[in-house]
Protein-export membrane protein SecG
Amino acid sequence: MSAFTIFLGLIVIVAFLLVVVIMVQNPKGGGLSSSFGGGGTQQMGGVKKTGDFLDKSTWFLAGALIILILASNLTINSGGATESKALDTEEAIETPTLPMPTTDGSTTDGSATE
């Protein structure tokens, strides 16, 4: 299994977790924290902490996703460079040029056309 395949699997997992964490949040202060018992800001049971956890996990997952995408890009570039290395060297096969006919009936290489 290549490094790119591993990074791709991790990217899919992190992206799915990021979607779940974002969907649990409510932009107006509700979401998961309001379903545990109220809208007060001085809750002792961890309701305020739930919002903080969701906020921090969103930022952590977003950062992890960016890092994984950049790391997978590095594996693509290093893997692709070895495959196209033969095309960059002088040993590459040159395409032959064909003689072009001119207006006086001869070709560019000096032979006459019929």
In short: Helices lie at 3-24, 31-34, 47-83, 85-88. The radius of gyration is 31 Å. The chain has a mean pLDDT of 74. The longest helix spans residues 47-83.
